[in-house]
Design goal:
The complex is a heterodimer of chains A (503) and B (314). Chain A has 503 residues and is an alpha+beta fold. Chain A is 31% helix and 23% strand. Chain A is built from 15 helices and 21 strands. In chain A, strands 8-9-10-1-11-19-12 form a seven-stranded mixed sheet, with helices on both faces. A six-stranded mixed sheet of chain A has the order 14-18-13-17-15-16. In chain A, strand 4 and strand 5 form a beta hairpin. In chain A, helix 8 runs antiparallel to helix 10, helix 13 runs antiparallel to helix 14 and helix 14 packs antiparallel against helix 15. The longest helix of chain A has 18 residues. Chain A starts with a helix and ends with a strand. Chain B is mainly α and 314 residues long. Chain B starts with a helix and ends in a 7-residue tail after the last helix. Classes of the chains: A alpha+beta (503), B mainly alpha (314). At the A-B interface, helix 1, helix 5 and helix 12 of A face helix 2, helix 3, helix 5, helix 7 and helix 8 of B.
């Protein structure tokens, strides 16, 4: 006990005398805070958004996109479709190498595309479904023969379906040690903690990458993630919470970058999936129109997101080429909403809104509930965690579900799966032959203006029938230490490491 | 003592079996389909079907359970649905993290809780006693995550004394490990210290009232000797049980503290696994935690005997 009497003050003293330590850092390590821990680090099996952020450092893709969503070369330097639209020919770089030293060539690309198409648990199959066969006339020419014209294919090749793994590494455990051809190679992963990459000096574009090491750290809590950035434990973070944007902007040691993301957030309505659809909200489009008119999208964004998220009523992000300009975001109109309900022969409607069990969604649901109430729509809120919501939604055990979509580069990915009769994600089982026809056609047309006509026509119908009520676009916010320069923000929310440096 | 240990280990086997059975059954009863989550945003039905087949999800649940149990007995805990990593590897990766944090927290709790508890008992009814109780009460009632965030903001963001988060092994980078350990261990230990302090105080009061302590005092021994030599040893018995049980609980992972300080331990692992319906990981971790808990109970019994000679014969 005497010992303790001395030990406690001594320990306290030692604590107080701890040197003021500058956070330990090597000058050329870039530390990035992610919102979640990525899943499998195998581009053909991976599914998470944060996983794609890590792949940006690890794996090169055939193509990439610039901030305006234009296709730019990466492993492929040029590409063209045959006149019948059934053959895609790509010219490949000859100076790219995999991290294990194997050269990248057409044969390697073919091996990868075949793996993505045939691996039993590949998640890329639907993305490459139009590909019939892959041919390699020479080392730098890749030819994709298609079953049907596919306007979405190039966009798929800018993401995981176009990422290349070293052929020799495919027989090993890819997830444990992915071997790609990107600017950084895999060093280690501690699940739920960090993923460490190291510069690949033989990369064809190595001069563009100034950091020797990249450390991705999973820090789910937004407040904690920001505190880590402030204390200098991180150099940048993705998905800064809207509620933290102001305080981060006012902090001189930080800077904030933002852009509209590719996705949408909205309410999916069960119009046709089982018994739950058999109520006024599911059966009568006028009731859905009334709900849409009852919601003030601007106020919703102000209350829940500090006004930082842009209101939307279409599945494409604000500023997107495929937005139908004839369909502006509607203003709130309670009188009209009431009139619509009256026309539908119902003065009071009750409907259940399914939300994910988290503070933001709960708040959103309450605001929607209050707004709808004024128009005579009584919304009951049901909250559960995401895995259950997804399952119930797919089984048709819902009337309305508050859900969103992270977005795809190609417009097809934001609309086709959700509203076509056989769409994988059409949980409300909405079905309209005309919409099916227009959207099926749109995916086969390469000419953007011609394609847009189909989307415009489909959207006109969808805006009237409202199987999905689109609400707002999630602006992506990144926060960086003010000494980090050269960050190019892109609507896909990815972190491209080229050009990033510390001043 | 040897027979005691042996007996305990034998009793542990059916316990572990029941624990695994419960976890297995309860998890399957949870709503939500892991494959809907794992199959990615696209939810390709073909992929989902294929995944279910790979993970034998379409077999009857009894078959699944015994298939799993059979593998576990051979040391194979299966793979994580989410990342494809072997579960055993994950457990071995997280276990040292959690043990390190738990040990540091318990040490801090003991260092604070027991001396203050003794002091409060000796000065019962004085200002010392009341302030100790007040401190203990606040320690118990301040939520860990809030206290943790406040500490980070003060110590890391404002004063820049300590790193805000992360983990290092004490055996690899001792100095950095200690820096990263101080705050989370203090947050956890602080709550536990309050707990220990309350119990030490009441146990001490009990013992100080007993006849033999009065005798000791009557012999003219000075108060320090009475308290430390005679009273404390007996008062420690319930404290030891409590401490080992607290340690056992910490092994299950201090979920909130681990989240706040981004420490990749059991707590984060299991929460993540439950949300992702990562069955194999949940099962493996729960089984390991149960084993840890049983070991801690055993340790408590052994320590009892060492501290209290009267128990040695039995």
């Amino acid at each position: 006990m005497k010992l303790l009497k001395i030990a406690i003050p001594a320990a306290a003293l030692a604590l107080a005398m701890l040197p003021t330590l500058a956070p330990a850092q090597t000058p050329s390590t870039l530390r990035i805070g992610l919102q979640e821990d990525p899943d499998m680090l195998d581009p053909h099996k991976a599914r998470t958004f944060v996983g794609r952020i890590v792949f940006m450092g690890l794996c090169d893709k055939l193509l990439d996109i610039d901030p305006d969503l234009k296709l730019v070369p990466q492993l492929a330097t040029s590409w063209s479709f045959s006149p019948d639209g059934l053959t895609l020919t790509m010219k490949l770089r000859s100076d790219a190498k995999f991290h294990d030293g194997e050269p990248f060539n057409a044969e390697a690309a073919k091996v990868n595309l075949e793996r993505a198409r045939t691996l039993p648990d590949s998640l890329r199959k639907s993305e490459l479904a139009s590909v019939d066969s892959v041919e390699t006339p020479d080392a730098t020419t890749l030819v994709l023969k298609l079953k049907r014209p596919d306007a979405t294919l190039l966009a798929q090749l800018t993401d995981r379906a176009g990422m290349m793994l070293a052929p020799k590494s495919l027989s090993g455990d890819v997830t444990a040690k992915p071997v790609c051809s990107g600017p950084y190679k895999f060093v280690e992963r501690v699940q739920n903690d960090r993923i460490v990459l190291e510069k690949f000096k033989e990369h064809w574009n190595a001069a563009q990458y100034s950091f020797d090491r990249i450390v991705y750290r999973a820090i789910p809590d937004t407040t904690v993630r920001l505190a880590n950035l402030r204390s200098g434990e991180l150099d940048m973070l993705e998905r800064l919470a809207p509620t933290d944007v102001k305080s981060a902007q006012s902090d001189k040691s930080l800077k904030v970058a933002s852009t509209a993301n590719l996705g949408y957030q909205g309410i999916t309505i069960n119009t046709n999936n089982g018994d739950a659809a058999k109520q006024p909200m599911g059966q009568d489009k006028r009731v859905r129109q009334a709900l849409s008119l009852a919601i003030d999208r601007k106020v919703l964004s102000q209350v829940v997101f500090e006004g930082l998220y842009a209101p939307m009523n279409q599945p494409f992000n604000p500023g997107n080429f495929f937005i139908n300009a004839d369909l502006p975001v509607p203003e709130r109109d309670v009188a009209k909403a009431k009139a619509l309900l009256k026309e539908a022969g119902v003065s009071k409607v009750t409907a259940e809104l399914f939300v994910t069990n988290n503070p933001v969604d709960a708040q959103l649901a309450q605001v929607i509930q209050a707004m709808a109430q004024e128009a005579g729509i009584d919304i009951q809120i049901r909250a559960t965690e995401f895995a259950s919501q997804l399952r119930d939604q797919q089984q048709g055990k819902f009337q309305m579900s508050r859900i969103g979509w992270s977005g795809r580069i190609d417009p097809d990915g934001n609309i086709h799966p959700f509203v076509t009769t056989k769409g994988n994600q059409n949980d409300g089982k909405y079905s309209n032959a005309e919409v099916d026809k227009l959207l099926d056609e749109a995916r086969t047309i390469y000419e953007p203006a011609e394609r847009k006509k189909r989307y415009d026509a489909a959207q006109k119908i969808l805006q009237d029938e409202l199987p999905i009520i689109y609400l707002y676009n999630q602006t992506v916010f990144f926060a960086l230490r003010s000494n980090i320069e050269g960050f190019v923000i892109n609507p896909d929310g990815m972190i491209r490491l080229a050009g990033l440096k510390r001043s | 003592m040897f027979t005691l240990i042996l007996r305990r280990i034998l009793i542990a086997i059916p316990t572990l079996f029941l624990v695994s059975l419960f976890v297995f059954a309860l998890q399957r009863a949870l709503p939500g389909d892991p494959f809907l989550v794992i199959a990615g945003e696209e939810r390709d039905p073909e992929v989902i079907a294929r995944l279910r087949e790979i993970y034998r999800m379409d077999d009857p649940i009894v078959v699944q359970f015994f298939a799993w149990l059979g593998q576990v007995v051979q040391g194979d805990f299966g793979r994580s649905l989410r990342t494809g990593e072997p579960v055993l590897h994950l457990i071995l990766q997280k276990l040292p993290v959690t043990i390190q944090l738990a040990t540091a927290s318990i040490l801090i709790a003991i260092a604070i809780g027991i001396p203050i508890g003794i002091l409060a008992a000796r000065r019962k009814g004085t200002i010392v006693d009341y302030s100790a109780s007040a401190v203990a009460l606040s320690g118990l009632s301040i939520p860990n995550f809030w206290f943790g965030i406040m500490l980070i903001l003060l110590v890391s963001v404002h004063l820049k004394w300590l790193p805000a988060s992360g983990y290092e092994s004490i055996f690899v980078h001792p100095w950095e490990a200690i820096q990263r350990l101080i705050m989370p261990a203090f947050v956890l230990g602080n709550g536990l210290a309050a707990f220990l302090m309350r119990h030490t105080r009441s146990a001490m009061l009990e013992v100080l009232r007993s006849d033999y302590v009065r005798t000791a005092r009557a012999k003219g021994l000075d108060e320090d000797t009475v308290v430390h030599r005679h009273a404390l040893r007996n008062a420690l018995v319930p404290i030891i049980t409590l401490t080992t049980l607290l340690f056992g609980e910490l092994l299950a992972g201090a979920v909130l503290t681990e989240q706040v300080f981004t420490i990749p331990g059991f707590g984060k692992l299991i929460v993540d696994a439950v949300f992702n319906r990562d069955y194999g990981v949940v099962q493996g971790v729960v089984l390991c935690t149960a084993i840890g808990f049983i070991l801690m109970n055993l340790l408590a019994d052994v320590l009892y005997i060492l501290v209290n000679p009267r128990l040695r014969s039995g």
